[in-house]
Fold this protein.
Amino acid sequence: MTPDPAGHPAPAPVSRRRLLGAVGAGAAVAGAALGAGGTALATRDSGSGSAAPGGEAAAATVDFRGAHQAGIATPSQDRLCFATFDVAQNATRADLAALLTAWTAAAEAMTLGRQVPGDEGDLNTPPDDTGEAVGLTPGRLTITIGYGPGLFDDRFGLAARRPSGLRPLPALPGENLDPAVTGGDLCVQACADDPQVAFHAVRNLRRLGFGTVLPRWMELGFGRTSSTSPQQATPRNLMGFKDGTRNIDARDENVMGRHVWIGEEEPQRWVRGGSYLVSRKIKMRMEQWDRDRLGDQQDVFGRYKGSGAPLTGHREFDTPDFAAKSGGAYVIPDDAHIRLAAPENNKGLRILRRGYSYTDGIDKTTGDLLGGLFFIAFMNSPDRFVTLQRVLGAHDALNEYIQHIGSGVFAVPPGLAAGQDWGRQLFG
């Protein structure tokens, strides 16, 4: 494989062969864990067969293999590293297939708390693992992969395998998208309870990709903004409000089957059991928001800031009463976020939210804080997001304080059974 345009060398061939061979071994280890998206206890391994410093420490791991990819129905972890890649201009179909197979073995090892497999102790080649996660527990690491619309053009013979719903999102109201944080041939979502573990996962997949894929953009999330299980406390976004109170309970397979997982209606069998991922980088005008009065902030969301309860209720999980009026006006305003986003006001439409807060530092010109919400949602058709965003983008009171500046849509394939890998799954 040739070096990439920056001059980075591809991994040594012998290391790649060793890595590909690790897929089968990894599958055998994974078979001892729980079902798809479940949690198990695993011993932290240094990658060399010896125990990690401090003895054998048990740490939570999430199954890599199963009917669905982990990182969707999995209870949301605290940290995110999300990256997109474009396939290099000189890469071939065989190069991409080999890389996806290599990524499978590496991802499975890292989710078990192990180093990327390869040649140990070869002083004449770079290490197969960058090493910054040695001694850290797996932190419930999940690695989820998705494919963008551009991957299914005529470059790799994948046009006939394009999932039926995978196409670029149309222009949507109120957005001002930056091409530097939009699109991509592939995406990798790494979530963990330790930010270094999540970053280590993406960094090592990037290293394996030298010469085959080029980084397009990356986002680090430092605080989850949605819960995917009622067992988790509802987090707050950077505006200080509880976010995702009415999110889908990912444990409910009936609801997930109706709204999230791609089903039998999909002509492409290989993607059934998967989902679609929509990402949106949403900038918050935080200084403007921080100067707004509390009553207006609550009207914007339709919830009390302290308790998270709807303006018609007393507790966070009280069902909003959208018909309630006071003095002839709706208690929850016409343009309140929760009214416009509610399933009962959108013909039952639901999506699984899994977003994170982010920060980009300070605007050197204005001194304003740069940050907001890195929105991630899973659904069985991107049309669900388009329908919802056309309503929100046109009428939501929140639009005064936010703007969508980045975007992506990806087909997320189903999980892998023992012996499968991403390369053979994609190319058939």
Summary: The chain has nine helices and 14 strands.
